[in-house]
Amino acid sequence: MPEVDRGPAALVGPVRIIGAGLLGASIGLALRARGLDVQLEDLDPANLRTASGLGAGVPVAGDETEPQLVVVAVPPDHLAGVIEGALEAHPGAVVTDVGSVKSGPLATVAAHADVARYCGSHPMAGTQHTGPLTASATLFEGRPWAITPHASTTPEATQVVTGLAELTGAMPLTFAPDEHDLAVARTSHVPHLMSALVAGRLADAPEGHLALSGPGVRDVTRVAGTDPGMWLQIVPANAPAILELLGQIRADLDRLESAIQDGDREALRGVLANGVAGTKAIPGKHGGPVRPTTSLFVHVPDRPGNLARLFADVDAVGVNIEDVRIDHDPARAGGQVELVVDQARVEDLTEALDARGWALHQ
Ligand SMILES: NC(=O)c1ccc[n+]([C@@H]2O[C@H](COP(=O)([O-])OP(=O)(O)OC[C@H]3O[C@@H](n4cnc5c(N)ncnc54)[C@H](O)[C@@H]3O)[C@@H](O)[C@H]2O)c1
Ligand SMILES: O=C(O)C(=O)C[C@]1(C(=O)O)C=C[C@@H](O)C=C1
């Protein structure tokens, strides 16, 4: 195991994680990779076994050293109760949670005598899966991680929770809990609901129509595939902020309908241009500016080892793959692999892959 990286925030462990699902197990894996001791708790013995089997930490036995930090990673409805339980069970520890909404749990925990040791947080990383099986040590790398101290959080608690985000490779950003909830309504909750509405139109589509599903519909609907369980708890917990944005979208939808009905291209251009402006406003990885990327499409015959060969050929040119997507080619036995790469390197890459015999187009 590598040396403990003490980092500027002095999180040295042990860290106790309550809830060893996707988030809890991923945090455990990331901290174990940095050499910290991780203790795991979960109500579900199967999840606990899976998470510890993957190397995310050791199930608690009752005789371990008291933790420096407790991370609560249970479903939204249970956060407040488990945070209060952690403050009581571990009187020397800082307590945080990774819940998707911050004001609700805080409103309950605020009355607790030891609330100064609690500092909320929220990593903006996840997948459409739940449970520890798809946990990953690299889930948080380069992603924003909101740190949400409240009025009486101690500076030490904020520092330790910031250290947690840093040790997982995430980018800590401080927000007041209310401001955080307004922000994620816009960047996470409403986008999720919009994705569900668009995907819902596919559920009863004539079968033949869905054969024409290209990358566009997959991009817009990916998160709609998530198990609804967590979202059934997130959405009511952030209802006012979500309703405000849905009202604005309803007005946009009315304007869009009129533009289409009236054949008003200028109004339509306005709606589309606003969308372009919105996508450009999203910061790039690590919070930097969005770097221009280009997609290169490569036909990959359906044979074992071909994908590995393609990735090795890209690596040989020293080009980083920013994103990748695979679509099955209805016409040929193979897949269409979309490689998203730095625009400045696309010519080099095209030349090199072409020379190695790959069939490609931009
Ligand atoms: N999945 C995401 O994309 C994502 C991203 C950021 C934050 N979050 C937040 O993280 C939290 C966990 O989400 P997840 O996706 O890891 O869920 P998950 O379902 O994968 O894991 C939750 C785990 O908590 C356990 N659990 C439930 N109640 C418990 C209790 N009282 N005590 C101990 N263990 C308990 C469950 O058995 C399960 O193993 C949620 O609050 C969610 O809002 C999720
Ligand atoms: O990547 C995904 O699948 C996610 O939806 C992750 C996502 C998000 O909206 O970005 C979802 C909810 C969490 O609270 C944080 C992250």
UniProtKB/TrEMBL annotation:
Uppermost EC category: oxidoreductase
Catalytic activity, as annotated: prephenate + NAD(+) = 3-(4-hydroxyphenyl)pyruvate + CO2 + NADH
Pathway the protein contributes to: Amino-acid biosynthesis; L-tyrosine biosynthesis; (4-hydroxyphenyl)pyruvate from prephenate (NAD(+) route): step 1/1
EC number: 1.3.1.12
UniProt keywords, alphabetically: Amino-acid biosynthesis, Aromatic amino acid biosynthesis, NAD, Oxidoreductase, Tyrosine biosynthesis
Pfam families on file: PDH_C (PF20463), PDH_N (PF02153)
The keyword GTP-binding is assigned to this record: no
Organism superkingdom: Bacteria
InterPro entries for this protein: 6-PGluconate_DH-like_C_sf, ACT-like_dom_sf, ACT_dom, NAD(P)-bd_dom_sf, PDH_C, PDH_N, Preph/Arog_dehydrog, Prephen_DH
GO molecular function, one term: prephenate dehydrogenase (NAD+) activity
Record-annotated ACT domain positions: 295-362
Residue intervals of the Prephenate/arogenate dehydrogenase domain: 13-290
Similarity comment: family membership: Belongs to the prephenate/arogenate dehydrogenase family.
Protein name: Prephenate dehydrogenase
